[in-house]
Q: What sequence folds into this?
């Protein structure tokens, strides 16, 4: 096999690996979108529109915290400990969750 043929074969393998990587990335993106749709569907089932709006506001400021809240709500829902959540109940739940967080104190001298 000539050197040119070897280079062609190597390049072909590289292109095939790149194509596989792209396909895997696309599959991961599709799975992430499906998960996001499922989460949104469950949130629509268990939260009032006002509570969902509050969660959306939280997501804008603290996306990681919003995801943790969504996971907690889904777990409570799937465990049968939560059926419907209005805005006041959601505020109370948020107070319980963030109550354990220590608030910074500013001292003026």
A:
């Amino acid at each position: 096999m000539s050197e040119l043929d070897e280079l062609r074969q190597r390049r072909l393998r590289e292109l095939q690996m790149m194509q596989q990587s792209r396909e895997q990335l696309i599959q991961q993106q599709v799975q992430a979108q499906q998960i996001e749709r499922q989460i949104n569907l469950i949130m629509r089932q268990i939260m009032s529109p006002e509570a969902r709006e509050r969660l959306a506001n939280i997501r804008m400021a603290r996306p990681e915290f919003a995801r943790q809240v969504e996971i907690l709500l889904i777990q409570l829902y799937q465990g049968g400990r939560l059926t419907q959540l209005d805005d006041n109940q959601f505020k109370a739940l948020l107070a319980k969750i963030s109550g354990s967080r220590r608030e910074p104190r500013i001292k003026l001298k």
